[in-house]
Amino acid sequence: MIGGKGMSQETVLILDFGGQYNQLIARRVRECGVYCEVRRYTTPLAELKAMAPIGIIFTGGPGSVYDPAAPQADPEIFKLDVPILGICYGCQLLAHNLGGKVTAAQSDTAREYGKTETFFDTKCKLFQDLPERSVTWMSHGDYMERVPQGFTLAAHSAACPNVAICDEDRGFYGVQFHPEVAHTENGTAMIRNFLYEVCGAAGDWSMGDFKHSAIQAVREKIGQGKVLLALSGGVDSSVAAALMAEAVGSQLTCVFVDHGLMRLNEGDEVEAAFRQWDVNFIRVNAKALFLSKLAGVSEPEAKRKIIGEEFIRVFEAEAKKIGRIDYLVQGTIYPDVIESGLGDAAVIKSHHNVGGLPDYVDFKEIIEPLRLLFKDEVRQLGRELGLPEYLVTRQPFPGPGLAIRVIGDVTKEKLDVLRLADFIFRDEIAKAGLEKTMNQYFAVLTNTRSVGVMGDGRTYDYTVALRSVTTDDFMTADWTRIPYEVLDRVSVRIVNEVPHVNRIVYDITSKPPATVEWE
Question: Is 180 a known active-site residue?
């Protein structure tokens, strides 16, 4: 990660055991004004000690602590005289290492998943000044059959007597639920209590500090080198461009690859916006190339990897035209990374700028200055950098573009259908004044065709799916309750104005179990 703490700032260490929500913990810690770094559980203890953390958080993970192959912490970490908070797997790891016993839950009285009513001992520092009863988000199939000596029970549910444990003399705490996710009521307040009441944090970190340290780190890394930035015009690449422009100025060239997978008129809009900036801007027309590479390809991961490779190859070709280019910059953010598989996390889908990269890249190094930031933090950084609000608040658009919103094989004809349907959806949302009530909304051209009737004739045409979610971090998301009358107007317009579409459906699935995008 480029960017980080200042020389005098305190640090909380987050030890990553491979769970899907791990970077949400980092996000919550930073929201509380405390700097943190995420390190894999395999990081040598000496390196962890050198960070001089004021507190340590063990993350969740997919393993079972009693499995010999499961990730383990160095036992010496418990002798550092540093407070520790264990979350889910991290809680069980704490118990397992300190004399407790963790087993597989034998019945529904011990295993818990989803929203769970939980009761708290508010004398425990972790829960002080919070309600004695609230909802938490559980996801554990293992059970602490015996808690370690010196620990007391600090929370319980109807199904589980040991939802949280604490040894306040040593500053060790464990919770079987996930305080980092939005579904846990008062979860951020619990993390705040750990940081301030247990670790004694001062709260001396901000996005402004990140901006300055990131700019300094970029300058030190690049020196007099030349930089090529992959500019899509979306929030992430725009913020990355602003950061790099402030850091290295004329050493930066921004390349916008028009791959023919953009929304209606979007390529022209991107060019118009960035032609006004004091940066070297190049627009590459690669529509025919990308369509030829995607011809006949239906599998989503294959699409992403093809697009990722072609992006890099186009950049390499442009770099050769420009002359010497040392570094490639991408606007990768953490939800991209975690869904592509971080550490021991499961791969959900490869993002074109992460898991989709080819094995060989003809640059000295790829720089990703936003790699450990979440979407809302990227927007905040954009404001710190002075970007206009319309760019900072623009809704996300996937790097592979409409290729992953056309289910099945991708053709120009299908893209044209989807572009117009998507425009109508977004246009009606804007006319209804609903843009700020949802975080991402778009149309999907499904690969399903069905019988319909138009006029007196039978049709057999495509189904368009509409998708809208509300979220603050894109790690979890809820489907948006769009008024029926708005959905009705969208449906009527698409069926009447878009050829080859005779049916509209609305996706009412949250994340999880779904992802935001269909592919």
Answer: yes
The amino acid at residue 34 is V
- pLDDT for 428-468, tens place per residue? 999 999 988 999 999 999 999 999 988 778 889 999 999 99
In sequence order, what are the residues at sequence separation of 6 or more whose Cβ sits closer than 8 angstroms to the Cβ of residue 156?
118, 119, 162, 163
Q: Is 156 a catalytic residue?
A: no
Catalytic residue among 91, 124, 140, 180: 180
**Strand locations in 168-266 (E):** 172-175, 227-230, 252-258
Whether residue 178 lies in the annotated active site: yes
> pLDDT (tens digit, 9 = 90+) per residue, 23-80?
789 889 999 999 898 889 999 999 999 999 999 999 998 888 888 889 999 999 999 9
Q: Is the peptide bond before 512 cis (omega within 30 degrees of 0)?
A: yes
d(CA 172, CA 198): 9
> What is the Cα–Cα distance from 178 to 294, expressed in whole angstroms?
40
- CA end-to-end distance (rounded Å), the chain: 27
Whether the pLDDT of residue 217 is over 80: the answer is: yes
Rounded CA-CA distance 237/233 in Å is: 6
Lowest mean pLDDT across 275-284, 309-318, 348-357, 367-376: 348-357
pTM for this model (two decimals): 0.67
> For residues 508 and 54, what is the distance between their CA atoms, to the nearest angstrom?
43
Distance of CA 263 to the CA centre of its chain: 22
Catalytic residue among 32, 36, 88, 254: 88
C-alpha 443: how far from chain center = 21
The residue assigned the tokens 């990703």 is 368
CA distance 380 to 208: 9
Give the list of residues 6+ apart from residue 170 with CB closer than 8 angstroms, or none: 150
One of 140, 178, 351, 352 is an active-site residue; which one? 178
Distance CA 221, CA 227 (A): 11
Q: How many CB atoms lie within 10 A of CB 37?
A: 17
Pairwise CA distance, residues 310 & 340, whole Å: 18
Closest CA to 363 of 332, 306, 322: 322
458 sits in which H/E element: strand 457-470
Question: Which two three-digit tokens encode residue 276?
Answer: 């006004």
